[in-house]
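HOLO CASE FILE
Compound: ketopantoate
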Amino acid sequence: MKITIAGVGAMGGRYALMLSRAGNDVDGIDGWADNVNAINEHGLQANFDGEQVVAKIKAYEQTKIDPSAVADLVILFPKSMQLDGMMQSLKPVITDHTKILCLMNGIGHEEIIEKYVTRDNIFIGNTMWTAGMEGPGKLKLFGSGSVALRNVEDGEAATAAAKKIVKLLSDAGLNAEYSDNILYTIYKKATVNGTMNGLCTILDCNMSEFGSTSTAEDMVVAIVKEFSAVAAKEGIDLNVPDTVDYIKTTWDPNTIGHHYPSMHQDLITNHRLTEIDYINGVIDRRGKKYGIPTPYCTFLTQLVHAKEQLLHAK
Ligand SMILES: NC(=O)C1=CN([C@@H]2O[C@H](COP(=O)(O)OP(=O)(O)OC[C@H]3O[C@@H](n4cnc5c(N)ncnc54)[C@H](OP(=O)(O)O)[C@@H]3O)[C@@H](O)[C@H]2O)C=CC1
Ligand SMILES: CC(C)(CO)C(=O)C(=O)O
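Model generated. Tokens follow.
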């Protein structure tokens, strides 16, 4: 099976590396020319749980994709604001049979993807793996994680295809599972991002440091209540205490507590724009639509945008 990782940054790099090391034929596509050149010259290099490893994969610049690189499976890992542009660029590698898997953070990405491919070829989910970059073509990967996914369209063929993708990912050590209730799973993961990403970015700390503060739990509860109220309007039952307990598992320094959320890596480390509009911003917008007050999500979205401006993020 030919797999194309679209957005071979930190998380796309992790998937490319692990799938390639498991013996799959993997290509990468990315908009960052230095990253593409480094991967083609030196391979995808990683500090992988303390061990230096290299995966030899072929990478293409997003604007120079070779049409011979037609994929059976495309795994999407650009940033949310790059998704539409990435889907445009992917046209040469997508056929009627190409499956598209989106595991990006955020809510509602399938609305963009279905402008380009039929719903029976779209698979959505999320990932609890973490990833960081030390420079072009260089990854820093530690800790464990998991993946949950499902077909967007019901039906035997789409379900079978989703389960095949689950097996492919699990065989590569990515610890995947099929989730019947994927919208619930996506909302639940979005609460982790809706708390950890924005708050650790504004407070300039990792998840474990955040969890050690006396006000951490109160802030998390307040934000989760807003996600839960919006989700309820969409028929999704997001239990607040259970969700808060789930978020608190990310504070453990022995698992992923030392991770700086991807939003922190974007804004504080690299002065790049963030995905806040696709996480807390969605709750702000849907809250307004449903007549639900979401002061914490609205304020956190405003704070992150203000910080983007102060840091001249691009
Ligand atoms: N990192 C993590 O731990 C996790 C990330 N995710 C999600 O995965 C998706 C991808 O995120 P992630 O892998 O973190 O993103 P990265 O920022 O590492 O990579 C995404 C893209 O950003 C560009 N880019 C990144 N760094 C630079 C740089 N220094 N200079 C120039 N361009 C750069 C590249 O494309 P381009 O040049 O086209 O901009 C790259 O393909 C997101 O939806 C994220 O929320 C989910 C769980 C955890
Ligand atoms: C690891 C985790 C769950 C932290 O919020 C994440 O998704 C990210 O870094 O964006």
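CASE NOTES: The chain has two domains: 2-180, 183-310. The domain at 183-310 is CATH 1.10.1040.10 (N-(1-d-carboxylethyl)-l-norvaline Dehydrogenase; domain 2).
CLOSED: yes
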